[in-house]
Design a protein that fits this description.
Length: 885
């Protein structure tokens, strides 16, 4: 941050360094191995008294001199020039740390140059003994140059104890010095053989050509065993965390690892073929091909070594952003723009946000990323992200991608950087204004309070069911809304009726053919392991959009109704259902209506790209779904994208147990699966990126935001300006509770995710109570103790013991009435305010008591009781006036 930035958009990301360095390193290794090759080949010719071999050495020396001195010298200077411009801070650090090392290397380099010129120009002028001495001097000086540079280069990868003592020798003889020295020496000898093959195939005399080609092939083949052994030693010398980073945690390194492994047998095969007698017309292109493979071989190694330093330029000392590790916290606190010397914007405003973002990009991203270029192009990497999604990624990217440096700026600077990349480069935006919602009709059935014999209550057990409608690619949340109902015979002592009656339900006609709206049924039969596929418009439990409900104990149920939020008129997340109670004679005893909330507004596209599937407001497109699978493949080593592309949809629950859908007709893993359960996996991973956002972390994904097309939070708590965190805790706390539940079952991946999270509601992770999803949930009575007005607005960390204790399953003190029947489902508690129509979520309170409050509240006991009530028979404090009117 202390130097000006050379803006290289297309050529950014160190492309110049990569191109020059790989070519230079290849030539410089040839300069070392080739020196020994010249001396030993001259000795071979002298001992055999073969003028043809000596003439070959003379010609090869000329080629060697021109290539190593001219091309090698120019690229050597080019490296210094480019690193000084592109990373001056690291260059300065290396110079100051190893100033005497560099001086010594330059002395040897000078000797190297002089010796090579003398060696070439004194052929036939010096006696063979003196001429060979000059050759040995050249090789010794060249190898000593390698010796010294090797210490400095590998210091950048493994500085070792230098970090504590700043001792020159500790940094020079670092942990990988010796294996790297042997590795490079053997590689240098192999490269000498590759270049020797190229020149020897142009010898005109056939016998001599065959002799020299086979001789050069031995230079490629014989060092190979030592080369592989030193490569293994090199890897074993790496610190464990560095070895794990390079070979496991960096998907970007896999092509280079694969290339290194693949090129090894190709080089051996090429050497064997050259050792065999093959026609000249084939040997020359084969020699050239071996040389090119050798260059690529060197390139894969150099990219692995360079990549292994990430996120540092000097490991554990200086980040690739040129920020010293010891200064990171200070820069984070003050901000990059306040600390950088060569910026024009110190503070971010709405007017300069794009320009400030560009300056942040130059400092923090340009060292590794190009804009539209071939090396680490930032545009396709960031293409899926909206500005808000990219901001979250930037703030926490180092936790999941350990090769990325921690973001050094403030949250505001992360927003400006995200705005520049996501909007300035890729044209992405977030929603800037609330989605316009069409008005929906709400029909309130009549109720004769004086003469009616029955009251019928009906509800969905969840305030909102989400649905992933990209079934051809990806199943996570299949269609399935549960409808429940209770029929109450009015009287002095009302009675819940389940016998001698039938409850019919019928979802409104515009929603009656979901198979024409989503491809769930077409895709279900392609799902691996699926045994029974329900017919179109039928849910996984065998229920359609109209039918009869099943009596169970005190309630009637119709499970997994295949309701989807689409009609001919567009997206409507609040379908309505009519429920009728009919006796054995066919007489209608009672009728009511309710909403069956279902949404496809899952905002995966914020980070995974793709358009909304429906009306630019809801639905998961194929592009978004495939991006989700691609991210899973990249991070977990799976092949889900390939599976989906082959026509087999991916079901998350086949690997990740989901208690909500257990036994619901889908092939899924059990609770003893080695993988995290679905809720722990999703929340545990995403909490890393969405920490410290409060309720915004929830609405970033769930269809609950006040500007969205669903606005799922409609209940009284939302209207009192409470949010998700009051009951569920922050996303970090929520995720930690789930992960601790999995940790107790010995699932190692839970530990990995917990490591990246910090609790917010408590001081330590040990204080968080573990839980299982959909079983251990927040409870109303945590706040409303003894059914009294709450003394606290926080209920995190106190969970229900089992399914029976859940609000949706709990009954009143009589054990007959479900709490949810009178209060409505969680997130839509009476008096709920639906964004599409204020009456949609309060149809039954309006039907039975002409108020939107809970059934029986405010002295409305006569809804069910035909005598005036003086006792609070359902729960304490129920006879008081409803306080939030």
């Amino acid at each position: 941050m202390n130097y000006p930035v050379w803006e290289l958009d297309v050529f950014g990301g160190g492309l110049f360094i990569a191109l020059i360095a790989v070519f230079h390193v290849y030539i410089s290794h040839f300069a070392v191995g080739g020196g020994l090759f010249l001396v030993l080949t001259e000795i071979k010719g002298l001992r055999a008294r073969d003028e043809g071999i000596l003439e070959y050495v003379r010609r090869h020396t000329r080629f060697f001199l021109l290539l190593t001195m001219v091309a090698g010298g120019i690229t050597g200077v080019g490296i210094w020039f480019t690193i000084a411009l592109l990373n001056p801070a690291a260059t300065s650090s290396l110079i100051h740390t190893f100033v005497f090392g560099w001086a010594t290397e330059w002395v040897f380099f000078t000797i190297e140059i002089l010796a090579l010129f003398i060696y070439y120009y004194t052929f036939d002028r010096l006696n063979s003994r003196d001429h060979l001495i000059i050759g040995w001097i050249y090789f010794g000086a060249a190898w000593m140059s390698l010796f010294i540079i090797n210490g400095i280069i590998d210091f950048m990868l493994t500085p070792g104890s230098w970090l504590e003592n700043n001792n020159f020798w500790a940094g020079f003889f670092n942990p990988t010095f010796w294996p790297a020295l042997f590795f490079r020496s053997f590689l240098a000898f192999m490269i000498a053989g590759m270049f020797g093959l190229l020149t020897s195939t142009w010898i005109r005399e056939e016998k001599l050509r065959t002799t020299m080609v086979r001789y050069c092939a031995l230079w490629l083949l014989l060092p190979f065993g030592g080369f592989l052994a030193s490569a293994w030693w090199y890897r074993r010398a790496l610190p464990p965390e560095l070895e794990q980073l390079i070979f496991q945690a960096m998907p970007e390194m896999r092509p280079f690892i694969t290339g290194f492994v693949l090129f090894s047998p190709l080089l051996i095969l090429g050497g064997l073929l050259m050792a065999a007698r093959i026609p000249t017309l084939l040997s020359r292109p084969l020699a050239a091909m071996i040389l090119i493979i050798g260059l690529m071989y060197m390139g894969t190694f150099e990219f692995l070594r360079e990549g292994g330093r990430r996120p540092y330029i000097i490991r554990d000392y200086m980040y690739s952003t040129s920020i010293l590790k010891r200064d990171l916290d200070m820069v984070k606190q003050k901000g990059v723009l306040q600390e950088a010397k060569w910026v024009s914007h110190r503070n971010i405003t709405e007017e300069n946000r794009l320009e400030a973002g560009r300056q942040l990009y130059n400092i923090l991203c340009l060292p590794c990323h190009a804009i539209g270029g071939p090396l680490n192009d930032i545009k396709p990497l960031a293409a899926p992200f909206s500005p808000s999604g990219l901001q979250s990624m930037i703030l926490s990217m180092d936790k999941i991608h350990p090769y990325m440096p921690p973001f050094a700026g403030t949250r505001e600077e992360a927003g400006a950087l995200a705005w520049y990349i996501a909007h300035g480069l890729n044209g992405r935006t977030d929603r800037t204004r609330p989605v316009a919602l069409p008005a929906a009709a709400a029909r309130v059935p009549e109720f004769d309070r004086e003469n009616a014999g029955y009251v019928l209550l009906a509800w969905s057990d969840f305030g909102m069911r989400s649905l992933t409608d990209a079934s051809a690619t990806w199943f996570m949340l299949p269609p399935g809304v549960n409808l429940e109902a209770q029929l109450i015979r009015r009287g002095e002592t009302p009675e819940v009726v389940t016998e001698g009656v039938t409850l019919h339900y019928e979802v409104d006609r515009p929603f009656s053919h979901p198979s024409t709206r989503i491809d769930f049924w077409d895709s279900l039969e392609k799902l691996p392991g699926m045994e029974t596929v329900p017919p179109p418009d039928t849910g996984l439990a065998g229920k359609g959009l109209e039918g009869t409900m099943t009596a169970e104990d005190i309630v009637f149920r119709a499970d997994l109704l295949p309701v989807v939020p689409y009609t001919d008129s567009g997206y409507m997340p609040y379908p309505q259902v009519t429920v009728r109670a009919v006796d054995e004679q066919g007489r209608v005893l009672a009728r009511t209506r309710a909403v069956l909330p279902v949404a496809t507004e899952m905002n995966c596209r914020t980070c995974h790209g793709g358009p909304w599937k429906k009306e630019d407001r809801a639905g998961i497109s194929t592009a978004t779904a495939m991006s989700v699978l691609a991210a899973h493949d990249r991070l977990s080593g799976t092949r889900l994208q390939e599976q989906a592309a082959s026509g087999q949809p991916v079901l998350c629950q086949q690997c990740h147990h989901d208690p909500l859908l257990a036994g619901k007709g889908l092939p899924q893993a059990g609770p003893d699966s080695s993988q995290l359960n679905l809720s722990a996996a999703i929340h545990g991973f995403h909490a890393i990126f969405l920490a410290d956002l409060g309720a915004k972390a929830c609405t970033q994904c769930h269809p609950a935001g006040n500007e969205g097309a669903t606005r799922a939070l409609r209940g009284i708590h939302h209207n009192l300006e409470m949010d998700c965190t009051n009951c569920h805790g922050s996303l970090s706390d929520h995720a930690l509770a789930l992960l601790k539940g999995e940790q107790e079952q010995g699932k190692a991946h839970a530990d990995e995710l917990i490591h990246h999270l910090a609790p917010e509601a408590v001081t330590g992770i040990d204080e968080i109570s573990p839980r299982q999803p959909w079983i251990n949930e927040p409870d109303c009575l945590n706040c409303h103790q003894d059914f009294q007005p709450p003394e606290t607005e926080e209920t995190f960390n106190i969970w229900t013991a089992d399914r029976d204790a859940l609000f949706r399953n709990r009954t009143d003190e009589s054990g007959q009435l479900r709490c949810i029947g009178c209060h409505n489902s969680a997130h839509a508690l009476y008096p709920a305010q639906n964004p599409y129509n204020d009456q949609l979520d309060v149809i039954q309170p309006l039907q039975y008591q002409s108020t939107p409050f809970p059934i029986g509240s405010d002295g409305s006991c006569d809804v069910c009781h035909t005598v005036e009530m003086e006792d609070e028979m359902h729960h304490p404090n129920m006879l008081r006036p409803f306080r939030n009117q």
